[in-house]
Design goal:
With about 110 residues, this protein is of the alpha+beta class. Helices cover about 25% and strands about 35% of the residues.
Length: about 110
């Protein structure tokens, strides 16, 4: 694969990244976790502007007509959180975690 460059730090650029893992839970819990490579938090420009914080606030906003409120209103999710899940040397991963209802577990494609 090629590499994306964020302020000189290479991050692997995968044209089609996607791994779907399905597990049979031991407890009655359902969730989906989506992770995306993003520029490292310590990168110049990111340190000051904190774009990951803006994205996490937008994804996690629970007000009227928000993603969260619409998915809850359709009975698909119980909760949603977003933010930097991994902050390594030279890269970060932005992660969105969604707690699904039973119906949401059956309709994951509608949630994602």
């Amino acid at each position: 694969p090629g590499f994306l460059r964020y302020s000189g730090s290479p991050v692997p650029a995968f044209p089609k990244v996607g791994i779907v893992r399905e597990f049979r839970p031991m407890k009655d819990r359902r969730s989906v976790k989506l992770s995306f490579p993003v520029p490292p938090c310590e990168a110049p420009g990111c340190r000051e502007s904190k774009p990951h914080r803006l994205a996490s606030h937008l994804m996690g906003y629970e007000g009227e007509n928000s993603l969260h409120s619409r998915l809850v209103g359709r009975g698909l999710i119980r909760g949603l959180s977003a933010g930097i899940g991994v902050d390594g040397s030279g890269f970060s991963m932005f992660t969105v975690t969604v707690a699904l209802t039973e119906m949401g577990g059956d309709r994951v494609d509608d949630v994602v």
